[in-house]
């Protein structure tokens, strides 16, 4: 699989996590690929720069340079959309009015802590809305490649990078597996199509439990 | 009261050592004409509160290259790699804030709030040195209000009194910054007579706005262009 | 998701012992139909957060007479003289707040703010027992957020998704309360299709609204009348 | 003079304090009489229940029951008016964006402290926006009858009623005189038409200085 295929696979699986009518904030990277796997109007996409009702831009002709998502990518306006300022947008996030946040990660650890904003030794120059989303979203789903470009596991025993929040994530979706954090423990719930348990064990630094009802996706 | 001014006239309000707020999320909703004017205005030692510092050599990025900026307060400087260079050379101070904390602090500055507790950043590196407190079993961080001497904001329309309405996601930080500075300059694409904006749709009431400037540079599909 | 409900259906969400927020400045912008419905709903021991407690025997004043209210949190109870009588007889607890502190605390509740410092009430009887702190040479009081189980708000229009717009000074506390309760019931004069409200004019985005109820009682020049 | 005449006299004098283009919040009582002495459009009236651009209601036909001021009295909408929620309205007040507040008083003392929200021995049942206005308004003008119904001075040595704020007022206007608080001291600046200095001294409990440039209004 190309990296593009991997990302689309993860995005498609993440889309299946979204319950009808939920309000969902999509982070930068893989999360931006998710919207196209969701039936239009079935969930409401929120972007922290100040909009509810984000839809995919389907035609270059409709491109409006003043209508962008948090990744500064052009989007379009769904039916029933609304605009608000940044403080109101983060009041929605911090106040618990956004049901789901889907975020990328540098690392996630076996307790559920996420690191996704800073790399040690590099200047810390950007955090954006990541910490706010962790603080306030009802459910946090992490979508990430299972391993880094250097083939190191991104699902680690303990984050070595600075964590984003004291709040733990709920679900981790990679191209190999789906994990959930249950009672503070990492639990393997699903194997992605064609992936063996051994492969997941091999490529995962974190300790994890294996669900009794593990699902093998085809 | 005549609030309409030329860009070069309004920008005189900015003095060396001032703290500025500059609206916009990247270039979207940024007061491009005023930023451009500022590159020709002879000031330095500025503290700039803005989500980003433009891009390398663009927007606020020009001011950075000109050495006019002493300190940048924002949430995401990664889009201009020169920010890191200036920081490493000791030419720039950085105060990185979570985006929601930044926007809430600006609101607090405008609303006369002396400080507030948020869960955001509690327990992370960005909370180092900050007062924390457990509230209902969860850890909160005390954050301070942000204020400025001058705010440069962008709106879609102003009426002659200074009431403002915004356009789509170009709204972002602009209505907040309009509340939190001693002098507020609004760059707008269109100026209409008082009474032409619906009272229910006005987002920034005129009491927040000191000067209105007609935009000359706008963001198009092709990037920043003259009107 | 079907948010439209009959008043008697929506009001079932309110249980004995609940904390309620009720919008309105006096009768202006008060959810009159829902309040009326509540007088027929069998609950008690309510804590009511509302600027006033109606007038004697009117609006929330009826609930007071019915003995359903345990505690009232608001800024101005003087308009219903029975509030004082109930208080003196030990039948009602009162928490009096400055109006700006009350509205800010409701906003804080909706925005996930754990507490905030304000100068308002510092050094007065209303600050007794509250934490104070000197900030930049002035005394501030720490105030807590306010939240509720259910909010009853009034808007002019809703679309079927639950987006709300308001009418003139009937806006008041309603948009704030819509952010600060677990379940939010919006009473509106008109329900339109999704897409009929301008995205720029929507004041309360639909994510805050759980139920929409068509108003049956409205405030006219002649007082409260059936529609 | 009837009490109505007294109130109109005070209101008219208070109107003269308002500089063009200032944003002014009018309290309940005498302050509500001030607007009619101001040229329409020369100042902008703010009401804390959520509006900028309040104008006097001139015709009963135009009465809109959902358009009221902080005293719940019907008003009308000026050109360029706007509406906002209560938190935004008090953010304007607390944040220093309202230039002038004009308020009634139960007592004002010689240091400039005001008491206008509670009477000892009575239940404390209402405060409204008084404390917020004192905290945040640029300039606070008190308009009040010089003496109470029991002929007791309302300009006292020290407030015996609970004070409204640690912030002191700037100007006091009664039917007898105009005082300002200068360097923490009460200074008599003007005598109202036909009023003697002796009468003011007799009816004022507070100690006050007399301005060297005292103005005697005619």
Which structural class is indicated by helix and strand composition of chain A?
alpha/beta
At the fourth level of CATH, the homologous superfamily of chain A is Glutaconate Coenzyme A-transferase
CATH superfamily of chain B: Glutaconate Coenzyme A-transferase
- What is the helix content of chain B? 10-25%
Q: Please, how many domains of chain A?
A: 1
Shape of chain A: globular
Structure, briefly:
Chain A has 218 residues and is of the alpha/beta class. Chain A has helices at residues 3-15, 86-94, 130-136, 197-203, and strands at residues 23-26, 44-47, 51-55, 76-83, 100-103, 107-109, 114-115, 139-143, 155-156, 171-173, 177-182, 185-191, 209-216.
Helix and strand layout, with pairings?
The complex is a heterotetramer, with two copies of chain A (218 residues) and two copies of chain B (227 residues).
Chain A: H1 3-15, E1 23-26, E2 44-47, E3 51-55, E4 76-83, H2 86-94, E5 100-103, E6 107-109, E7 114-115, H3 130-136, E8 139-143, E9 155-156, E10 171-173, E11 177-182, E12 185-191, H4 197-203, E13 209-216
Parallel strand pairs in A: 1-2, 1-5, 5-8, 6-9, 8-10, 12-13
Antiparallel strand pairs in A: 2-3, 3-4, 6-7, 10-11, 11-12
Chain B: E1 4-5, H1 7-10, E2 19-22, H2 32-39, E3 46-49, H3 60-65, E4 69-74, H4 82-88, E5 93-96, H5 99-111, E6 113-118, E7 132-135, E8 138-143, E9 148-159, E10 164-165, H6 174-177, E11 181-192, E12 211-214, E13 217-220, E14 223-226
Key terms:
heterotetramer; A: 218 residues; alpha/beta; Glutaconate Coenzyme A-transferase; 10-stranded mixed sheet; 3-stranded mixed sheet; 13 strands; 17% helix; 28% strand; globular; B: 227 residues; 9-stranded mixed sheet; 3-stranded antiparallel sheet; 6 helices; 14 strands; 33% strand
Outline the structure in words:
The complex is a heterotetramer, with 2 copies of chain A (218 residues) and 2 copies of chain B (227 residues). With 218 residues, chain A is α/β, with parallel strands linked by helices. Helix content of chain A is 17%, strand content 28%. Chain A contains 4 helices and 13 strands. The longest helix of chain A has 13 residues, at 3-15. The radius of gyration of chain A is 17 Å and the shape is globular. Chain B has 6 helices and 14 strands. In chain B, strands 1, 2, 3, 4, 5, 9, 10, 11 and 12 form a 9-stranded mixed sheet that branches. In chain B, strands 6-8-7 form a 3-stranded antiparallel sheet. Chain B has a two-stranded antiparallel ribbon with strand order 13-14. Chain B starts with a strand and ends with a strand. Chains in contact: A-B, A-C, B-C, B-D, C-D. Chains A and B meet through helix 2 and helix 3 of A and helix 4, helix 5 and helix 6 of B. Strand 6 of chain B pairs antiparallel with strand 6 of chain C.
């Amino acid at each position: 699989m190309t990296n593009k295929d991997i990302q689309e696979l993860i995005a498609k699986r993440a889309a299946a996590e979204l319950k009808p009518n939920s309000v969902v904030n999509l982070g930068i990277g893989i999360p931006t690929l998710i919207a196209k796997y969701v039936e239009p109007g079935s969930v409401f996409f929120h972007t922290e720069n100040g909009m509810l009702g984000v839809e995919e831009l389907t035609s270059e002709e409709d491109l409006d340079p003043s209508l962008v998502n948090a990744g500064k990518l052009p989007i379009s306006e769904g039916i029933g959309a609304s605009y608000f300022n940044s403080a109101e947008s983060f009041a929605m996030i911090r106040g618990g009015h956004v049901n789901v946040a889907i975020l990328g990660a540098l690392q996630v650890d076996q307790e559920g802590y996420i690191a996704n904003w800073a790399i040690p030794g590099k200047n810390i120059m950007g955090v954006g809305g990541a910490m706010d989303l962790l603080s306030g979203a009802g459910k946090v789903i992490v979508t990430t490649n299972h391993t880094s470009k250097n083939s190191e596991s991104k699902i680690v025993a303990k984050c070595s990078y600075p964590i984003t929040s004291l709040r733990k994530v709920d679900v981790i979706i990679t191209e190999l597996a789906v994990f959930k954090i249950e009672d503070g423990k990492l639990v393997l719930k699903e194997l992605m199509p064609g992936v063996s348990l051994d492969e997941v064990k091999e490529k995962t630094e974190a300790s994890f439990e294996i669900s009794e009802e593990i699902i093998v996706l085809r | 009261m005549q609030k309409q001014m030329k860009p070069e006239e309004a920008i005189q309000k900015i003095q060396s050592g001032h703290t500025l707020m500059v609206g916009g999320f990247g270039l979207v909703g940024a007061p491009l004409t005023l930023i451009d004017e500022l590159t020709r205005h002879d000031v330095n030692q500025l503290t700039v509160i803005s989500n980003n510092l433009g891009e390398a050599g663009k927007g606020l990025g020009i001011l950075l290259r000109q050495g006019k900026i002493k300190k940048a307060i924002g949430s995401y400087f990664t889009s201009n790699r020169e920010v890191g260079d200036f920081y490493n050379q000791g030419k720039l101070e950085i105060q990185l804030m979570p985006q929601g904390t930044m926007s809430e602090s600006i609101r607090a500055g405008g609303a006369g709030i002396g400080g507030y507790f948020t869960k955001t950043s509690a327990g992370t590196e960005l909370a180092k040195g900050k007062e924390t407190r457990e509230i209902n079993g969860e850890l909160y961080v005390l954050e301070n209000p942000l204020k400025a001497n001058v705010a440069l904001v962008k709106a879609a329309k102003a009426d002659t009194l200074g009431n403002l309405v915004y356009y789509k996601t170009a709204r972002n930080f602009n209505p907040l910054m309009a509340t939190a500075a001693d002098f507020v300059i609004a760059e707008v694409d269109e100026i209409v007579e008082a009474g032409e904006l619906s009272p229910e749709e006005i987002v920034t009431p005129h009491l927040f706005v000191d000067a209105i400037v007609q935009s000359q540079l706008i963001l198009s599909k092709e990037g920043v262009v003259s009107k």
